[in-house]
Known about the structure:
The protein is α/β, with parallel strands linked by helices. It folds into two domains: 102 residues, Rossmann fold, CATH 3.40.50; 84 residues, 3-Layer(aba) Sandwich (Rossmann fold). The strands form two sheets. A seven-stranded mixed beta sheet has the order 3-2-1-4-5-6-7. The longest helix has 25 residues. It is globular and about 50 Å long. 37% of the residues are buried. The mean pLDDT is 95.
Amino acid sequence: MHRxxxxxxxxxxxxxxxxxxxxxxxxxxxxIAVVLSNKPDAPGLASARELNLPAIAIPSAGMPRAAHDAQxxxxxxxxxxxxxxxxxxxxxxxxxxxxxxxxxxxxxxxSLLPAFPGLDAQHQALDYGAKVAGCTVHFVDEAVDHGVIIxxxxxxxxxxxxxxTLSARILEQEHLAYPEAIARVLSEQYxxxxxxxxxxx
Length: 201
């Protein structure tokens, strides 16, 4: 059984999408081992408790980054996590964190990377006049929104789109893409060469 560690700072809609995929037997041999947040009042923690999942807050406010990351890493390892999934976790992952779970941390970003990394990707796409937007699930490495891309899903940018309407359509695709990417990684039927994720035959 593969064990996921979910990191979130807010409502955790991607966490709920992953949980639903597991519940509906569309992501097999997988369970959520623990849900962690740096925000004690994160709605995602309450949702995890409603699902009878271990939900733990490790507040980051006022704590040195190294100390906070050490607690997060230790808690994930205590729960024997195989794969770490960032689901709206609003902190940059440190080198020490990446080293603790090499090629075992995933993130979803609301743009077609390498376009529009960082915050407010949807605003960036609209401001730039992009005609196509979407989401990217990628491995996390030492740089922000930089790791090897596992998969991407696209949505058109409509002339009448606002930040809210575009964000909603991208989020729908995130909810599909993230469980699919998790399944691909856990299958171990891939190689990553020269920044290219290549599925095995």
